[in-house]
Write a structure and sequence with these properties.
2% strand; 12 helices; two-stranded antiparallel ribbon; mainly alpha
Length: 258
């Protein structure tokens, strides 16, 4: 694919997002997390980003593949394959010989280090009896604003917009310095942060080597040569990154004030 930033290319979206991706990668939150308690507070909010990433994934799967009976073929056969491969890794990865989703593993990581899972677990419980909009409305302000952005997109966004938000909002934006900090804290308190470290390194690995390239191909497949769809995708990705920056800002403020 050409690297020229025409309005109908991946390079166009990457150029559109470059300032936001730089802000996110250089966010002061990372250097402000210095203690185990800081990291626990980060995880208590970050888990909602992990969960809504899974929700974006399943929204894409439901629209790109046939998940009803009787089966009928859907358009975009290449993207069908891409999304099913990504679902396999995200929803049924293998950790030390057992199958587990990344979100469930993240919850285990929180419990391992003593982070509070009650707010997130309450959301999962409410979702068994409560519509998603009402359940989100009952969240604390910090995760509510972030999650609302994602579910507004799931409710009303085009398929290319969903794919772009999913593709350009992944965990590969977390810088090496943050993972180095987690390694240091895990070394200081063996057995407390090993699961979280595995989650971070696994996401960097699959985003760079597998899921990232697949996702970029999916965006190209869905946008085709339609300049309007490429612009919709770019704007959706921009909103997703802005929401992540706002979440990082809120976590930073909480750490600084407490």
């Amino acid at each position: 694919m050409s690297s020229v930033a025409t309005p109908d290319s991946i390079a166009f979206i990457e150029g559109h997002l470059a300032p936001l991706r730089t802000r996110l990668a250089q966010h002061p939150l990372y250097s402000s997390i210095r203690t185990e308690n800081h990291l626990r507070r980060f995880m208590q909010s970050h888990v909602f980003a992990v969960w809504d990433f899974m929700s974006l994934l399943k929204a894409l799967q439901s629209r790109l593949t046939c998940v009803t009976v009787p089966w009928t073929p859907t358009p975009y056969p290449e993207s069908r394959r891409f999304i099913n491969e990504i679902v396999l890794g995200e929803e049924s990865d293998v950790y030390h010989g057992r199958s587990i989703s990344h979100c469930e593993l993240y919850l285990e990581a929180m419990k391992q280090c003593g982070a509070d899972t009650s707010t997130f677990q309450s959301l999962l419980t409410r979702l068994t009896t409560t519509p998603i909009g009402e359940a989100i409305h009952q969240l604390p302000q910090m995760p509510r604003a972030f999650v609302s952005t994602t579910f507004e997109l799931i409710e009303s966004g085009s398929l290319p917009a969903l794919a772009a938000a999913f593709t350009f909002g992944r965990e590969d934006l977390i810088p090496d310095m943050f993972r180095a900090l987690v390694r240091e804290l895990d070394a200081q308190s063996p057995g407390q942060f090993s699961l979280f470290l595995w989650y971070l390194e696994r996401h960097i690995e699959v985003d760079g080597e597998d899921h990232g390239p697949l996702s970029l191909r999916m965006v190209s497949d869905l946008c085709g040569s339609d300049e309007r769809l490429w612009r919709e995708a770019a704007e959706a990705a921009k909103r997703a990154l802005e929401a992540r920056i706002d979440l990082w800002d809120a976590i930073l403020l909480e750490i600084q004030t407490r």
